[in-house]
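Why does residue order matter? Because the sequence determines the fold. Keep that principle in mind as you read this record.
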Amino acid sequence: MASRSKAGRGKVTAPIVLLVPQVKLPKRLDLAREADRALDSVPGLIVANWLETRF
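Structure:
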């Protein structure tokens, strides 16, 4: 049996992948905040329209 070089035995070459951000996504619409703002304005709108029709 011929002698072989033992260098590299049991080792595996594995690729290395680096993840780099490519795109910046815009923030999503915050519907909860918009809904709260709409709800806050409703009583004032009702009163304003009610006063206009009464007088």
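The chain has a mean pLDDT of 80.
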